Amino acid sequence: MADFCLFKASKPTQCDATMYKPSLVVTLQGSKMISLFGDNQPLSAGKGLISSIDIPILSRIADASIDKPYLSVVFELDINIVTGLIQEIDDTIYRDPDSQAISISTLPESLMDAVSRVVRLLDNPNDIAVIYSMLQREVIYRLLLSEQGSRLRHLCIQGSSSHKVSQTIKYLNQHFDQPMKVESLAQHVNMSVSSLHQHFKAITTMTPLQFQKQLRLHQARNQILQNVDISVAAYQVGYESASQFSREYSRLFGLPPSQDRLMV
C-alpha cells in the first residue's frame, strides 16, 4: 500500500507548503484549510480533494485535538490504472472540456464506502496483499464516475490539449530551476504559445511562468526549513536576486524567509 497513507494530527499546525501529486485526499475527522487558487477552502470530514496534476499547495490543519484528532487518507492515483479504467468506460467521457485540475467537494457515498473499506484493511494486514489492489481499482473507478471524474479523464487522453498541459507541468517540475522561455516550452509539447497559455491557465489558473515561480518558492521553503542558508536556497532554485526572492517569498507565504523559519 505504498500509494496509500493515513495521516493523524493531535493539534492545529502552521502553514505547510506541499507538492500534491495526482491524488485523492479524504478527510475522515477534523478539518484542514487549503489555499486553492487564492482562496482558503476547508477540507472537512466527508469531503475530498482531487488533484490530477503535480501542483504546489499551501495548507494547515485547522481542527484537531488529542481527544478528536485530525484524520485523513491520501491515495496517490496510479495513472496506468486510471487510463485502463477510462478505456473500459463509455468513450463519451473523452469529450470533456478543460477544467481546473484540483478541487474540493463532498464525495458520493459509494466512493466514501470504498475508501472506508481500504482503511479497515489496516485492521487485517494479512488481507492487504490480496484485497488492496481490487479496492484501489474500485476507488479510482468510483472517482471517475463522480462529478469530479473529468479532472482525471481529460488529462489521460493522449494528444489532447489537457494531456499536453500535463506534460508541460511534468517538464516544469523537472526543470523549475532553469531559465525558461514560453516559446520553447510550447514547442516542447507541440502547441502554439497562445494555445498553451489558454489551456494551462484554464487548468491551473496560472500562467506557466507563475507556476514555475510557485515551484521555485515551495522548493526553496523546504530547503530553508531544513536550515539551508537562505541565499543558497534562493540560488539553487533559480533566483539571481536575493531581494526579489525575499519579496516573492513573503508575498506567497506571508513572512520573509528568516522569520518563516523561526515559526516552524
Automatic annotation (TrEMBL):
<dbReference type="GO" id="GO:0003700">
    <property type="term" value="F:DNA-binding transcription factor activity"/>
</dbReference>
<dbReference type="Pfam" id="PF12833">
    <property type="entry name" value="HTH_18"/>
</dbReference>
<dbReference type="InterPro" id="IPR009057">
    <property type="entry name" value="Homeodomain-like_sf"/>
</dbReference>
<keyword id="KW-0805">Transcription regulation</keyword>
<protein>
    <submittedName>
        <fullName>AraC family transcriptional regulator</fullName>
    </submittedName>
</protein>
<feature type="domain" description="HTH araC/xylS-type">
    <location>
        <begin position="166"/>
        <end position="263"/>
    </location>
</feature>
<dbReference type="Pfam" id="PF06719">
    <property type="entry name" value="AraC_N"/>
</dbReference>
<keyword id="KW-0804">Transcription</keyword>
<dbReference type="InterPro" id="IPR018060">
    <property type="entry name" value="HTH_AraC"/>
</dbReference>
<dbReference type="InterPro" id="IPR018062">
    <property type="entry name" value="HTH_AraC-typ_CS"/>
</dbReference>
<dbReference type="InterPro" id="IPR009594">
    <property type="entry name" value="Tscrpt_reg_HTH_AraC_N"/>
</dbReference>
<dbReference type="GO" id="GO:0043565">
    <property type="term" value="F:sequence-specific DNA binding"/>
</dbReference>
<keyword id="KW-0238">DNA-binding</keyword>
